[in-house]
Every structure is written in structure tokens, then in C-alpha cells.
Amino acid sequence: MFPQCGGINDQTVAQLTKVSGLNNTARNSVGCQWLAGGGILGPHFSFSWYRGSPIGRERKTEELSRASVDDININGHSGFIAVGNEPNLGDSLCEVGIQFQDDFIEWSISFSQKPFPPPCDIAKELARQSIANSK
């Protein structure tokens, strides 16, 4: 079981992403989304909990649309890490999906303008914290 937003608060997301003015625009039992100023233009960060859904299908989708997809293990839990890039931004998107029995969680970190911290460092840290918060 995961607490709402993977147990991650708004301040933690703002601190790790170094984005001010973040609003949690969607918050429910299976996911949360943070947007700068609440708008769809700009960076976006999200946590999703896919209950009873196979992680392999999500990984296949990532493999079709991302620059790279690799295996990852965080605190004994396996999954994938997917990197997306833009010509003028470089590696600006990172998604980490982690398997939990019949479920999986995914953190998505996407920036829209430089400068920004490494998105995969943020996604891995948020996944690590969510795993620690799971029951």
C-alpha cells in the first residue's frame, strides 16, 4: 500500500526539482500531479500507482517513445528507468517504474526549460522515498 502521493509532500517535490510555485493539481488515491503555477505549460511532475497492472506493458510503451530504457533496482525492488530528450534541452524527462507484486508505481519528472537538475536523480530519489513510505 502506498500513501497518497507516494507519501511525498509538495515541499519535497519543490525542493528536489528546484521549481517554485508548484501546485498539486491532481491528488487522489492512485496519483498526484504537480504543475508550475497550476498550468499545463512548463515543467510537470507526477506519481502514479497502477494497481493490478503489468509493468511490462508500460515498459514497452516507454521503449517505443523514449531515448533509452534500462533496468533499475531501488531498495530491492526492480523496474525500469526511461529517459526522454529534446533537441534544445537534452535529457529533460525521466520516468522510473517500480514493480510491487501485481502493482507498480511510476514517478515522472519533466522539465521544459534550462537550467534544471538531473531529472533521473530526482525520479530515483522520489521512488526511493515512496518505497520507504509503502506499507
Describe the structure.
This protein is an alpha+beta fold. Helix content is 25%, strand content 41%. The chain has one domain: Protein Transport Mog1p, Chain A. It has three helices and seven strands. A seven-stranded antiparallel sheet has the order 1-2-3-7-6-5-4, with helices on both faces. β2 and β3 form a beta hairpin. The N and C termini lie close together (5 Å). The mean pLDDT is 95.
Q: Which consecutive residue ranges, at least 5 long each, have pLDDT under 50? A: none
CATH class: Alpha Beta
**How would you spell out the order of helices and strands?**
HEEEHEEEEH
Strand order of the largest sheet: 1-2-3-7-6-5-4
Q: What oligomeric assembly is this protein in?
A: single chain
Beta-strand content bin: 35-45%
Mean pLDDT: 95
The CATH architecture category equals 3-Layer(aba) Sandwich
Shape: globular
CATH topology: Protein Transport Mog1p, Chain A
Report the helical percentage: 25-40%
Number of domains: 1
How many DSSP helices?
A: 3
Largest sheet descriptor: 7 strands, antiparallel
Task: Compute the CA-based radius of gyration.
Answer: 14 Å
Q: Which structural class is indicated by helix and strand composition?
A: alpha+beta
Number of strands: 7
Terminal Cα span: 5 Å
Pfam family, one: DUF3558
Protein name: Lipoprotein LprB
InterPro entries: DUF3558 (IPR024520)
Organism: Mycobacterium rhizamassiliense
